[in-house]
Design a protein that fits this description.
- Helices cover 43% and strands 14% of the residues.
- By secondary structure, the chain is α/β, with parallel strands linked by helices.
- The chain folds into 2 domains: 167 residues, D-Maltodextrin-Binding Protein, domain 2, CATH 3.40.190; 127 residues, Bacterial extracellular solute-binding protein, family 7 (D-Maltodextrin-Binding Protein, domain 2, 3-Layer(aba) Sandwich).
- It has a 6-stranded mixed β-sheet with strand order 7-6-8-5-9-11, with helices on both faces. It has a 5-stranded mixed β-sheet with strand order 2-1-3-10-4, sandwiched between helices.
- Helix 3 runs antiparallel to helix 11 and helix 7 packs across helix 12.
């Protein structure tokens, strides 16, 4: 297993000498309360990390910035979160940008790049060391939303009811994928259905689909996918690295004092590193449990993936839908992928 040796960029955020010296009654008036709906069900591993995120924001602001955390669907159905935050029903969401790629083509490239960056570090470097953050914010801005930062982690698996030895074996299969992955898998011959996450188990069980992307290995193990799919491809080339996103209502964000904005950014980046490291360890444990349950875990060959990537680049280009910002994102990623020797 590759060692993770990047250091977290942790900013120390103070309230300033004037704020610290102010009377408690005056400081209490400055307290900010937000509501945030996450992607995850309550009690799940990723939701526990969202709890750590809001606790970190509070700690960095001397408990003056309180974010009340809700699990998926508690405030609004997951598919309506984008419009709810945009309209100010609540201030913030944790989302997967690919869900909105149909409205905003550039968001296809800020969620995952199928057959793209094979390591989370590489994808995160595009956001922080190149121009990914700025481009993501530019994509969300016309909708009245502010992209704070991503949570980047590694690959997600493909669960299958049938053995898959090569990428060519995907052709003719019925599968659940979303975002750019749905477009790419469709181009590889998969009949794609963008089912909600909570329908994946039953769809596999009933044979509505043969293969599925759903979430990380631990989440899928907890969801019982070992009961309905006897094969796993890991890493899944459809999602070799993954980004979910902290996104806020633009007006609400603009009204925050600068230390609170910095707290959001710092806590988001810390959460990204913490979750990625946790998943790195948890994946090994989950694979062992899947195998104990009789599930066969395998991977496509590197040569097979590299050969497919050459073809998939053309699908990436089509996914820009001739949108200037999406094309700018793709050009930036392609340049970095070339520097990494991947294309």
């Amino acid at each position: 297993m590759r060692k993770f040796n990047r250091r977290t960029a942790i900013q120390t955020i103070g309230l300033g000498a004037a704020a610290l010296a102010a009377p408690l009654s005056a400081r209490a008036q400055d307290k900010v309360k937000w509501r945030m709906q996450a992607l995850w069900d309550g009690g799940t591993m990723p939701q526990r990390f969202e709890k750590l995120f809001v606790e970190r924001v509070a700690a960095l602001t001397d408990n003056q910035f309180e974010i009340e955390l809700f699990s998926a669907g508690q405030l609004t159905p997951a598919a309506q979160a984008f419009d709810a935050v945009r309209g100010g029903a609540f201030e913030m969401m944790k989302t997967f940008d690919g869900y909105e790629a149909g409205k905003i083509p550039g968001l296809a490239f800020t969620s995952t790049v199928p057959f793209g960056f094979p390591e989370g570090d590489q994808y995160e470097a595009w956001f922080y060391e190149l121009d990914g953050l700025e481009l993501a914010r530019e994509a969300y801005a016309p909708a009245g939303l502010y992209y704070i930062a991503p949570t980047v982690y590694g690959p997600e698996p493909i669960h299958s009811k049938v053995p898959l030895e090569t990428i060519a074996d995907l052709e003719g299969k019925k599968g659940r994928f979303v975002g750019l992955a749905a477009t790419v898998m469709g181009a590889l011959g998969v009949s794609v259905s963008p089912l909600p996450t909570n329908e994946v188990y039953s769809a596999l069980d009933k044979g509505v689909i043969d293969i599925a992307d759903r979430g990380d290995l631990t989440a899928n193990l907890d969801a019982g996918l070992s009961e309905v799919a006897n094969y796993i491809i890991m890493p899944g080339p459809h999602q070799p690295s993954t980004a979910t996103s902290y996104v806020a209502n633009q007006a609400a964000y603009n009204n925050l004092p600068e230390p609170f904005k910095e707290a959001l950014f710092s806590a988001a980046r810390e959460t990204s590193v913490a979750l990625r490291q946790h998943i790195m360890v948890a994946d090994g444990k989950a694979i062992a449990e899947f195998e104990d349950a009789g599930v066969e875990v395998s991977s496509f060959s590197e040569d097979d993936i590299n050969e497919a990537r050459v073809k998939v680049v053309e699908v990436w280009k089509e996914a820009t839908k001739n949108n200037d910002l999406a094309q700018k994102m793709l050009d930036s990623q392609l340049q970095f992928l070339k520097e990494l020797g991947l294309v």
